[in-house]
Amino acid sequence: MKKVNFSAGPSILAPEVIQATSAACADFNGLSLMEISHRSKDWQKVMDETDALFKEILNIPEGYSVVLVGGGASLQFCMVPFNLLEKKAAYLNTGVWAKKAMKEAKGFGEVVEVASSADANYTFIPKDYIIPADADYFHITTNNTIYGTELHTDIDSPVTLVADMSSDIFSRPVDVSKYGIIYGGAQKNLAMAGLTFAIVKDEILGKVSRYIPTMLDYRTHISNGSMFNTPPVVPIYSAYQTLKWIKSVGGLPEMQRRAQERAKLLYGAIDESRLFIGTAAEEDRSLMNICFVMKEEYKELEAEFLEFATSKGMSGIKGHRSVGGFRASTYNAMPLEGVQALVDCMHEFEKAH
Ligand SMILES: *Cc1c(COP(=O)(O)O)cnc(C)c1O
Predict the structure, then answer these.
(1) What is the pLDDT of residue 1?
(2) Where are the beta strands (DSSP E) in 45-178?
(3) Sequence-distant contacts of 107-112: CB under 8 A, at least 24 apart
């Protein structure tokens, strides 16, 4: 049975991306992608085109560099303060990932939590807070993968703005000029696991007084075209193919249109349902991770619905343990038909109960 992949990450990729990457693993100009030298001319071309596509699709202004490394978004939690935090940094606490980022920063200086929605189990994104003007940077998580909340606009910050965009990168047009660093793990919306991206404004680097280990210094990767050491070529190739796919179907405006269409369909079904209810505050609802539970009086049906939907091919819809219920991740590559199949399951289940 063909399954629909609603997993929060690693997650669904476009079929074109999987086909092209598989084909290159078997034959990349006569060798396998898995065995080629990253110093070969053929590979350099992939790196150059990936960099160019990143900049074109996101409309990245002059003065920014795209860094591709390993280590996941979790390593960025430490690389960001290592490179930017001299005295004080401000963080918006919107969930587990934001908290993990704060924990790492505390090893480098003072960390100010400007606001938190922890008391409400992160069901909304705080709006009223003051960013200290003397902070070295302000850190946000634009999409909270676990709780299904999302910041839908590029906010203004009086200090360097740093964003973890792991789970909503490339899902809408972004004003990159408002950010000092945008980073994320690639395995949600861009590529197979094993790759991390950082879009870095060059002029914010080199201002801290500490020694930065070579591999953790953004400047190392910028000046070596993300090939200071051996890069993860297969994940990068899958990112390259995703970028080509995004461009071919219409770029970020089209990604956003599709995301809105999918979300409208699924949130609509949740809102008019007798059994289900959404968990995130309406104005902060994520277009990427749609979280919902059974209403109190039907709570005992959750396990049964999970089993039912799974038997119909809905894969990865179990909610994160800190929210419970269900989470349908509807990333860029999710076709509308996939969401429709889940909605059909919900309707069928509701009829039977
Ligand atoms: C998945 C995720 C992470 C962690 O990414 P890793 O690459 O596994 O370290 C961090 N932040 C957000 C918002 C995520 O969704």
Answers:
(1) 73
(2) 64-69, 88-93, 110-116, 138-141, 143-144, 149-150, 161-164
(3) 107/78, 107/81, 108/81, 108/82, 108/210, 109/81, 109/85, 109/136, 112/88
- Closest atom of ligand 1 to 143 CA is 13
Which residue among the candidates 164, 168, 217, 284 is catalytic per the annotation?
164
Q: What's the rounded Cα separation, in Å, for the pair 94 and 80?
A: 18
Contact at 8 Å (CB) between 3 and 313? yes
Q: Tell me the one-letter amino acid at 156.
A: D
Asked if the model's pLDDT at residue 126 lies above 80, the reply is: yes
**Does the Cβ of 166 fall within 6 Å of ligand 1?**
yes
Q: Catalytic residue at 244? A: no
Question: Ligand 1, residues 145, 166, 190: which to mutate, most atoms within 8 A of Cβ?
Answer: 166
Bridge-based pairing of strands 64-69 and 196-201 is: antiparallel
Q: How far apart are CA 128 and CA 33, in angstroms?
A: 49
| pLDDT of the residue at 299 | 96
- Which residues, 6+ apart, have CB-to-CB distance to 263 below 8 Å? 285, 286, 287, 290, 330
Amino acid at 154: D
Cα–Cα distance measured from residue 231 to residue 175, given in angstroms and rounded to the nearest whole number: 28
41 is catalytic: no
CA distance 121 to 105: 22
Q: For residue 313, with 0-12 CB atoms within 10 Å meaning exposed, 13-18 middle and 19 or more buried, which class applies?
A: middle
Name the closest-CA residue to atom 4, ligand 1: 73
Active-site position among 43, 51, 168, 188 = 188
Residue type, 65: S
pLDDT band for 177, please (50, 70, 90 cuts).
Answer: very high
Give the pLDDT confidence of 181-211 residue by residue, as tens digits. Answer: 999 999 999 999 999 999 999 999 999 999 9
Q: How far apart are CA 25 and CA 32, in angstroms?
A: 5
Residue 61 carries which DSSP code? P
Ligand 1 pocket residue status of 150, Cβ below 6 Å:
no
The per-residue pLDDT of the chain, averaged, comes to 97
